[in-house]
Write a structure and sequence with these properties.
With 328 residues, the chain is of the alpha/beta class. It is built from ten helices and 15 strands. The protein has three domains: 3-86, Winged helix-like DNA-binding domain superfamily/Winged helix DNA-binding domain (Arc Repressor Mutant, subunit A, Orthogonal Bundle), CATH 1.10.10.10; 90-160 and 269-302, 3-Layer(aba) Sandwich (D-Maltodextrin-Binding Protein, domain 2); 163-266 and 311-326, D-Maltodextrin-Binding Protein, domain 2 (3-Layer(aba) Sandwich), CATH 3.40.190. Strands 4-3-5-15-6 form a five-stranded mixed sheet, with helices on one face. The protein is elongated and about 75 Å long.
Length: 328
């Protein structure tokens, strides 16, 4: 029995929850995984999995064995990576996950520059709204927006954001001027529903000692932020968005911000997240360092000075409902 390969197959099966999932991840056949895992159990004299119609579940022995094996395999991977880094530039496939609007509007425009700098890294960009999503195990690096709970992961801040209230020039030309947040009650406003299911319909602002909060209304709400942006571009209504996401559209004159003397509260930070075992992986390091550089450039281009990091709002940990329901 190939002990090292058996351990790799066991860990993959445990993380994927099935032999078929491990086979897909390792690009081998299901019988190959089953054979080595069974051989490993026979050699140990213990059952590592309970096999049922819903897939695999680790036994108590399996839990203990996984806890012991995983660090050893991670150390071996790090050793392989460090030797490879000493003789070659970063190479290999890198799987990057993030929400679609962030990948498209912030990360995507920089990918050609990244490829020019690191031509031996093949990027696989995947839609991933939260680090805790079911298929997140296959992701090497996450680019996220918001206050993510990431126990056991390394989280590196990329940028602070600020909320902007925007619509197309045609919309503003056809509707009453907005001079303070309360004026938004007379406008069609499109609200975003975050990945946790909370509709962000309460927009809060401050200007010096003044504070205003408005519950917005409109005929469209969505968890797909690009859908809201498209509706605003079509002149259908007003949106609120993190400035870095719509920066290029504002620069091109396709969206026009208002209330710029007011500060929108609860604007989310942008971060890059990866597993501790990848801390010294050359291709991961290369991408993380590049993202830090890229977002620093985006912050500089927006002008107007730095933006203070927003506090995690009270409604953020909710799983449904409306932000207006938890207003303090």
């Amino acid at each position: 029995m190939d002990k090292l390969r058996a351990l790799q197959y066991f860990v993959a099966a445990a993380e994927e929850g099935s032999l078929s999932g491990a086979a897909r991840r390792l690009e081998v056949s299901i019988p190959a995984v089953a054979k080595l895992v069974t051989s490993l159990e026979r050699r140990l004299g213990a059952s590592l999995f309970d096999r049922g119609s819903q897939g695999l579940e680790l036994t108590a022995d399996g839990e203990r064995y996984l806890e012991s094996c995983r660090p050893l395999l991670e150390q071996l991977d790090e050793a392989d990576e460090s030797i490879g880094a000493s003789v070659a530039r970063p190479r290999g496939e890198l799987v990057v996950g993030g929400p679609p609007f962030l990948l498209q509007n912030c990360v995507g425009p920089a990918l050609a520059r990244f490829h020019a700098r690191y031509p031996d890294i093949a990027l696989d960009m995947r839609i991933m709204n939260q680090v805790g999503d079911l298929d997140a195990a296959a992701i090497d690096v996450f680019v996220i927006i918001g206050w993510q709970d990431t126990p056991g992961l390394v989280q590196k801040p990329l940028a602070a954001t600020r909320f902007e209230v925007l619509a197309s020039p045609a919309y503003w030309a056809a509707h009453a001027r907005v001079e303070r947040p309360a004026d938004l009650s007379r406008h069609t406003c499109f609200a975003f529903r975050n990945p946790r299911g909370v509709l962000l319909d309460q927009w809060e602002f401050e200007r010096g000692r003044e504070k205003e909060s408005i519950q917005v209304h409109g005929w469209l709400a969505s968890s797909h932020r690009n859908l809201l942006i498209d509706a605003a571009l079509a002149g259908e209504g007003v949106i609120r968005s993190a400035d870095l996401v719509v920066q290029s559209l504002v620069r091109l004159g396709q969206l026009t911000p208002v209330l710029q003397d007011w500060h929108g509260l609860h604007s989310p930070p942008v971060s890059v997240v990866f597993r501790p075992k990848h801390r010294r992986t050359p291709r991961v390091r290369a991408f993380v360092d590049f993202m830090v550089e890229h977002f620093r450039r985006m912050e500089a281009e927006r002008g107007g000075g730095t933006v203070a990091t927003a506090h995690r709002p009270a409604w953020y940990d909710r799983r449904s409902g409306r932000s207006s329901s938890w207003r303090r």
